[in-house]
C-alpha cells in the first residue's frame, strides 16, 4: 500500500523554500494516500542547537504544518524524538551503509566545507538516520526538494543492501517525489545557492513568518541582472537569480513559469518585484497569522504531536521488531 513519509528539521524558522519545496506539497498529498509528516528534531541536533530554541522551533514547524493545512485527523503529525524506533533503526542502518556512500553525499560536503574533521559524527551519518525515518514505516513515496534527492537514493541503496545481506524482501524501494516549479528555491542574494533556514544573512531568505514590509524589502533587494524579464524560459538558462524569482512566482500562483513570463512580457523588475511581494504576502500572511495563534497554545501543539507519535509508533514498532529478528538481535 502506498504510504508517504517526509519531514522538516527544526533548525530555525521555516523558509519559503521549506514551504514551496515541502509543506505545500505535503498538503497536496494528504487525503490521496496514508501520510506521515515528522518534525525531525534528531536531525536538527547534528549541528548544536540551543535547547530552548530547539523546543520552540520544533513546535513552530508543527504549527507551520497545521497552519498550512495538514490535518491531524488525516495525517500523522509527530516529532521524531518521541518515537525511539527511529534512532534504533538508524543504528542498524549505520551498520548496513558504507563509509564510501556517505563520502559521496554532496550536502555533507556543502555543510562541512573545509571543516570536515570538526563537524559532528551525526552530521556525517545523517543520511543513514534519514533512511531509517523513511523505511521504519515502509514508506513508498517521499516528497522532498531537489536537495534531498541524493539522500532518498541512498535510502534505496540501504534497503537493497539490507534485503540482499539478509536474504529477505523486507524493505521497499522508496520513490522520491520531486515535482513542480519550486523544488529548489534559491538564495535571494546568490542564485547558485539554495535558500536555507540557517544561511548567514536574513536577507537571503523569505521566512514564512516575515511581515509584509520585510517580504517587500527582501524581494526589492533581491539580486537580479540588468536585463528585463525574458520572453522565453530558454533565455533564463544563465540567469539563475531571474529564473528563481519567476519560479517562485509560478509556484505561489500555481502557474507554469512560461505563463508567468507571458503575463509579464516586456516588464522590468521594478514592476515584477512588487507584484511578487504582494503575491507572497497574500499566500503567506494567512499561514503566518495562524501559526502565531497556534503558538499561543503550545500545550495543544504538544497534545497533537504526542497523539501523532502514538500512532506512528504503532506502525514503527512491529517493523523494528521484525528488523531486529531478521538481524538476529534478541529483544
Ligand atoms: N531552498 C529550498 N527549495 C526547495 N525545497 C527546500 N527544502 C529546504 N530548502 C529548500 C526542502 O524542505 C524540506 C525540509 O528540509 P530540512 O529543513 O529538513 O533540511 P534542509 O534541506 O537542510 O533545509 P535548510 O533550510 O537548508 O536547513 P538548514 O539550513 O538548517 O540546513 C526538504 O524536503 C527539503 O528538500
Automatic annotation (TrEMBL):
A motif ('HIGH' region) lies at residues 10-18. It is found in: Cytoplasm. Its EC number is 6.1.1.2. GO terms for molecular function: ATP binding; tryptophan-tRNA ligase activity. GO terms for cellular component: cytosol. ATP binds at residues 9-11, 17-18, 145-147, 185, 194-198. It holds the Pfam family tRNA-synt_1b. Transmembrane segments: none annotated. Keywords: Aminoacyl-tRNA synthetase, ATP-binding, Cytoplasm, Ligase, Nucleotide-binding, Protein biosynthesis. One of its GO terms (biological process) is tryptophanyl-tRNA aminoacylation. It catalyses: tRNA(Trp) + L-tryptophan + ATP = L-tryptophyl-tRNA(Trp) + AMP + diphosphate + H(+). L-tryptophan binds at residue 133. A motif ('KMSKS' region) lies at residues 194-198. Homodimer. Catalyzes the attachment of tryptophan to tRNA(Trp). Belongs to the class-I aminoacyl-tRNA synthetase family. This is Tryptophan--tRNA ligase. It comes from Loktanella fryxellensis. The lineage of its organism: Bacteria, Pseudomonadati, Pseudomonadota, Alphaproteobacteria, Rhodobacterales.
Amino acid at each position: 500500500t502506498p504510504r508517504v513519509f517526509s519531514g522538516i528539521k527544526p533548525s530555525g524558522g521555516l523558509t519559503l523554500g521549506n514551504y514551496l519545496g515541502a509543506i505545500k506539497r505535503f498538503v497536496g498529498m494528504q487525503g490521496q494516500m496514508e501520510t506521515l509528516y515528522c518534525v525531525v528534531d534528531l536531525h536538527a541536533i547534528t549541528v548544536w542547537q540551543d535547547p530552548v530554541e530547539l523546543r520552540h522551533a520544533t513546535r513552530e514547524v508543527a504549527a507551520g504544518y497545521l497552519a498550512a493545512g495538514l490535518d491531524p485527523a488525516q495525517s500523522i503529525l509527530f516529532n521524531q524524538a518521541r518515537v525511539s524506533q527511529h534512532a534504533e533503526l538508524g543504528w542498524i542502518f549505520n551498520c548496513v551503509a558504507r563509509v564510501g556512500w556517505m563520502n559521496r553525499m554532496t550536502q555533507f560536503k556543502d555543510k562541512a566545507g573545509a571543516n570536515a574533521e570538526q563537524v559532528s559524527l551525526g552530521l556525517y551519518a545523517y543520511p543513514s538516520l534519514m533512511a531509517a525515518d523513511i523505511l521504519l514505516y515502509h514508506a513508498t513515496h517521499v516528497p522532498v526538494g531537489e536537495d534531498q534527492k541524493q539522500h532518498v537514493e541512498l535510502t534505496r541503496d540501504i534497503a537493497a543492501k539490507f534485503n540482499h545481506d539478509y536474504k529477505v524482501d523486507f524493505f521497499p524501494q522508496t520513490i522520491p517525489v520531486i515535482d513542480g516549479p519550486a523544488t529548489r528555491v534559491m538564495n535571494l542574494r546568490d542564485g547558485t545557492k539554495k535558500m536555507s533556514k540557517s544561511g548567514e544573512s536574513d536577507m537571503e531568505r523569505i521566512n514564512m513568518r516575515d511581515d509584509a514590509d520585510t517580504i517587500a524589502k527582501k524581494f526589492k533587494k533581491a539580486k537580479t541582472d540588468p536585463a528585463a524579464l525574458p520572453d522565453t524560459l530558454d533565455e533564463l538558462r544563465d540567469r539563475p537569480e531571474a529564473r528563481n524569482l519567476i519560479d517562485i512566482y509560478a509556484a505561489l500562483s500555481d502557474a507554469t513559469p512560461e505563463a508567468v513570463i507571458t503575463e509579464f512580457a516586456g516588464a522590468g523588475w521594478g514592476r515584477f518585484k512588487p507584484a511578487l511581494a504582494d503575491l507572497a504576502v497574500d499566500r503567506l500572511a494567512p499561514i503566518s497569522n495562524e501559526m502565531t495563534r497556534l503558538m499561543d497554545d503550545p500545550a495543544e501543539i504538544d497534545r497533537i504531536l504526542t497523539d501523532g507519535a502514538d500512532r506512528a509508533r504503532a506502525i514503527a514498532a512491529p517493523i523494528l521488531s521484525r528488523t531486529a529478528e531478521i538481524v538476529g538481535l534478541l529483544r
